[in-house]
Amino acid sequence: MHDAIVHSSGARMRWVELPGEEPARVYVHGLGATSAPYYAEVAAHPLLPRHRSLLIDLLGFGISDRPREFSYTLEAHAGTLAEGLRKAGVTGASVIAHSMGGAVATVLAARHPELVARLILVDANLDPYPPAPVRPGGTGIAAFGEEEFVAGGWKEVRDRVGPHWWSTMRLADLRGLHRTAVSLARGTSPTVRELLAGLPIPRAFLHPEGDEPRGAAELREAGVRVLEIPESGHNIMLDNPQAFARTLAALLSPGP
């Protein structure tokens, strides 16, 4: 396990690292998740040529620290992720990011272009949304006030998401989880979708079979490859790791 101090409080970001050639690949988890359980099978898959791979946990999630004074906005997550990558000696990485992590990774690529050479989003959040509906990535968390969520609202979310998602969500800091969900619902300015469309690097958006993202035609016009992964739901890397690894191998191969 590796770590780096990424916040003025002394909070450390931690990651599991697989050795290999440069440039590195950076895997970023979604809301209430942690990178190693979601990505380990794919990062070590025989279809992928060996590259240095960082399976990294954002502050407040998984094995990383959970500073109370951190804002946990998408922009703040992108800033601390950038700090962690710099301290890890990462530049020009291929960033593979799921759901909420895809929004963070897009902000990272827009604000810290030297760190990201290629961006692969996995059913990522591109737009703000009202906090009340229950939907993948939101789980209704943002419908609670922060103190209400910490005092017991999290139990409703636990019962709603089920044991699989809760297995990693229970590792998250409650305030960090709530603040991140609120920021995800609020979105960024410009929006993540607008940031993604304006990036000058190779980009791809992977989505479950039969569930093409809103505005797919406009994404393609902006140069984003929109690719369907068969026999998968929102957690594509867990539902069909073979197809996910095969798609990654094609996207990560040398060339445009």
TrEMBL record:
Keyword terms, alphabetized: Hydrolase
Domain AB hydrolase-1 residue range list: 26-128
Highest taxon, organism lineage: Bacteria
Pfam families: Abhydrolase_1 (PF00561)
Species name: Nonomuraea rubra
Entry GO CC: membrane
Protein name (record): Pimeloyl-ACP methyl ester carboxylesterase
PANTHER family, A to Z: AB HYDROLASE SUPERFAMILY PROTEIN YCLE (PTHR43798:SF31), MONOACYLGLYCEROL LIPASE (PTHR43798)
MF (Gene Ontology): hydrolase activity
